[in-house]
């Protein structure tokens, strides 16, 4: 599936500034956040917007994207993956496996697991201890991970002699070649279980729902993750358990918007407060504080409350809160208010042509000298 152009995803031009990219991201991430938008594809669109912003907000990544697009510039010729043909395959084909194979019966660490946790805005700001329920594979308590019935033991596979691999001879135009393949008798494990454990049916692990305590770190942001050591999948052959990675999804707040460690708040004030000045209380994540509004403040003006943002999750200080002023225009005026505004306009030398005024009203005001 082809990815859309990141600039198209955010709806900005290729020459867009960082501020324009940031503004577009804030708008779209709020629009498509799965906790707000219940459309079927909202989550997919939210991730697409987030991915585009992470690429274009970083100067180095953006420069790389502008040059190479979605193609990875570090990707060379076939990497020996599912579709590639690596050097190990070449040696295996012509020389019967030139690399050292690991012991299939050696202890191995279990798989790492990932859990997505949706948390409240304020829990992300201040942190919290909580509990999650996670279905996971754990070492079987009956056979202690061997997969064999109690009182019995797995036996070394007689076909591969415990190596987990078989040499398969093959005639080719270059001569007789030897290939190594996983032993189909023991499925590459090097062991055969003749009497399987009835609890885990020979798997060595059982699926359980486990409660795990998780400490949400103060200052964690949307998309960041926490590693919980040893809470992943069960180890193999007595190996240690894997780790659990908790990915945090932070719900949006009805008043605050977060950007990094900074908080943004749109603050509506009246025309009189903007013109004459005032001292008002404004909300912050840590409670209300007083803010002085200077006389003549314009709509869109910004004020910074130092240290009133979010504590950095890595301990690098605390962000600020930015107050963005929005001057409210009154929509319903009584006659007294209208009269005062007309007088204000007259003194200012700017008399507006009022909507909805009849010719009779205009003549009447002219006669009265209004």
From TrEMBL:
<dbReference type="InterPro" id="IPR008971">
    <property type="entry name" value="HSP40/DnaJ_pept-bd"/>
</dbReference>
<keyword id="KW-0677">Repeat</keyword>
<feature type="repeat" description="CXXCXGXG motif">
    <location>
        <begin position="157"/>
        <end position="164"/>
    </location>
</feature>
<dbReference type="Pfam" id="PF00684">
    <property type="entry name" value="DnaJ_CXXCXGXG"/>
</dbReference>
<comment type="similarity">
    <text>Belongs to the DnaJ family.</text>
</comment>
<feature type="binding site">
    <location>
        <position position="143"/>
    </location>
    <ligand>
        <name>Zn(2+) 1</name>
    </ligand>
</feature>
<feature type="binding site">
    <location>
        <position position="160"/>
    </location>
    <ligand>
        <name>Zn(2+) 2</name>
    </ligand>
</feature>
<feature type="binding site">
    <location>
        <position position="183"/>
    </location>
    <ligand>
        <name>Zn(2+) 2</name>
    </ligand>
</feature>
<dbReference type="GO" id="GO:0031072">
    <property type="term" value="F:heat shock protein binding"/>
</dbReference>
<feature type="binding site">
    <location>
        <position position="140"/>
    </location>
    <ligand>
        <name>Zn(2+) 1</name>
    </ligand>
</feature>
<feature type="repeat" description="CXXCXGXG motif">
    <location>
        <begin position="140"/>
        <end position="147"/>
    </location>
</feature>
<feature type="binding site">
    <location>
        <position position="200"/>
    </location>
    <ligand>
        <name>Zn(2+) 1</name>
    </ligand>
</feature>
<feature type="domain" description="J">
    <location>
        <begin position="5"/>
        <end position="69"/>
    </location>
</feature>
<feature type="zinc finger region" description="CR-type">
    <location>
        <begin position="127"/>
        <end position="209"/>
    </location>
</feature>
<dbReference type="GO" id="GO:0005737">
    <property type="term" value="C:cytoplasm"/>
</dbReference>
<feature type="repeat" description="CXXCXGXG motif">
    <location>
        <begin position="197"/>
        <end position="204"/>
    </location>
</feature>
<dbReference type="InterPro" id="IPR018253">
    <property type="entry name" value="DnaJ_domain_CS"/>
</dbReference>
<comment type="subunit">
    <text>Homodimer.</text>
</comment>
<dbReference type="InterPro" id="IPR036410">
    <property type="entry name" value="HSP_DnaJ_Cys-rich_dom_sf"/>
</dbReference>
<dbReference type="Pfam" id="PF01556">
    <property type="entry name" value="DnaJ_C"/>
</dbReference>
<keyword id="KW-0235">DNA replication</keyword>
<keyword id="KW-0862">Zinc</keyword>
<keyword id="KW-0346">Stress response</keyword>
<protein>
    <recommendedName>
        <fullName>Chaperone protein DnaJ</fullName>
    </recommendedName>
</protein>
<feature type="binding site">
    <location>
        <position position="157"/>
    </location>
    <ligand>
        <name>Zn(2+) 2</name>
    </ligand>
</feature>
<dbReference type="Pfam" id="PF00226">
    <property type="entry name" value="DnaJ"/>
</dbReference>
<dbReference type="InterPro" id="IPR002939">
    <property type="entry name" value="DnaJ_C"/>
</dbReference>
<feature type="domain" description="CR-type">
    <location>
        <begin position="127"/>
        <end position="209"/>
    </location>
</feature>
<dbReference type="GO" id="GO:0042026">
    <property type="term" value="P:protein refolding"/>
</dbReference>
<comment type="function">
    <text>Participates actively in the response to hyperosmotic and heat shock by preventing the aggregation of stress-denatured proteins and by disaggregating proteins, also in an autonomous, DnaK-independent fashion. Unfolded proteins bind initially to DnaJ; upon interaction with the DnaJ-bound protein, DnaK hydrolyzes its bound ATP, resulting in the formation of a stable complex. GrpE releases ADP from DnaK; ATP binding to DnaK triggers the release of the substrate protein, thus completing the reaction cycle.</text>
</comment>
<keyword id="KW-0143">Chaperone</keyword>
<dbReference type="GO" id="GO:0009408">
    <property type="term" value="P:response to heat"/>
</dbReference>
<keyword id="KW-0963">Cytoplasm</keyword>
<dbReference type="GO" id="GO:0008270">
    <property type="term" value="F:zinc ion binding"/>
</dbReference>
<dbReference type="GO" id="GO:0006260">
    <property type="term" value="P:DNA replication"/>
</dbReference>
<dbReference type="InterPro" id="IPR001623">
    <property type="entry name" value="DnaJ_domain"/>
</dbReference>
<feature type="repeat" description="CXXCXGXG motif">
    <location>
        <begin position="183"/>
        <end position="190"/>
    </location>
</feature>
<dbReference type="GO" id="GO:0051082">
    <property type="term" value="F:unfolded protein binding"/>
</dbReference>
<feature type="binding site">
    <location>
        <position position="186"/>
    </location>
    <ligand>
        <name>Zn(2+) 2</name>
    </ligand>
</feature>
<dbReference type="GO" id="GO:0005524">
    <property type="term" value="F:ATP binding"/>
</dbReference>
<feature type="binding site">
    <location>
        <position position="197"/>
    </location>
    <ligand>
        <name>Zn(2+) 1</name>
    </ligand>
</feature>
<dbReference type="InterPro" id="IPR012724">
    <property type="entry name" value="DnaJ"/>
</dbReference>
């Amino acid at each position: 599936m082809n990815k859309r152009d990141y600039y198209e995803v955010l709806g900005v031009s290729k020459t867009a500034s960082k501020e324009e990219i940031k503004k577009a991201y804030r708008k779209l991430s709020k629009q498509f956040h799965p906790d707000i938008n219940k459309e079927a594809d909202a989550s997919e669109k939210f991730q697409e917007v987030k991915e585009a912003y992470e690429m274009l907000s970083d100067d180095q990544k953006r420069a790389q994207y502008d040059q190479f697009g979605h193609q990875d510039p570090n990707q060379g010729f076939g990497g020996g993956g599912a579709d590639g043909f690596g050097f190990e395959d070449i040696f295996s084909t012509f020389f019967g496996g030139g690399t050292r194979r690991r012991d299939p019966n050696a202890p191995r660490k279990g798989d790492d697991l990932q859990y997505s946790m949706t948390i409240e805005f304020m829990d992300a700001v201040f942190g919290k201890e909580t509990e999650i329920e996670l279905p996971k594979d754990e070492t079987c308590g009956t056979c202690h991970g061997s997969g064999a019935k109690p009182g019995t033991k797995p036996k070394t596979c007689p076909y591969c002699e415990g190596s987990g691999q078989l040499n398969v001879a093959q005639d080719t135009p270059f001569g007789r070649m030897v290939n190594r393949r996983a032993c189909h008798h023991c499925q590459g494990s090097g062991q055969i279980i003749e009497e399987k454990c009835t609890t885990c049916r020979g798997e060595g692990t059982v699926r359980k729902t486990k409660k795990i305590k998780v400490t949400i770190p103060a200052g964690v942001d949307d998309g960041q993750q926490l590693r919980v050591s040893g809470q992943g999948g069960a180890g193999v052959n007595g190996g240690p358990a894997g780790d659990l990675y908790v990915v945090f999804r932070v719900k949006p707040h009805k008043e605050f918007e977060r950007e990094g460690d900074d908080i943004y708040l749109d603050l509506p004030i009246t025309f009189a407060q903007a013109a004459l000045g005032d001292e008002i209380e404004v909300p912050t994540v840590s409670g209300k504080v007083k803010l002085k509004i200077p006389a003549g403040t314009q709509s869109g003006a910004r004020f910074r409350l130092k240290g009133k943002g979010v504590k950095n999750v890595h301990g690098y200080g605390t962000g600020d809160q930015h107050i963005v002023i929005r001057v409210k225009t009154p929509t319903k005026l009584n006659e007294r208010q209208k009269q005062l505004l007309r007088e204000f306009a007259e003194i200012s030398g700017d008399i507006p042509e009022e909507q909805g005024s009849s010719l009779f009203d205009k003549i009447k005001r002219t006669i009265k000298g209004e």
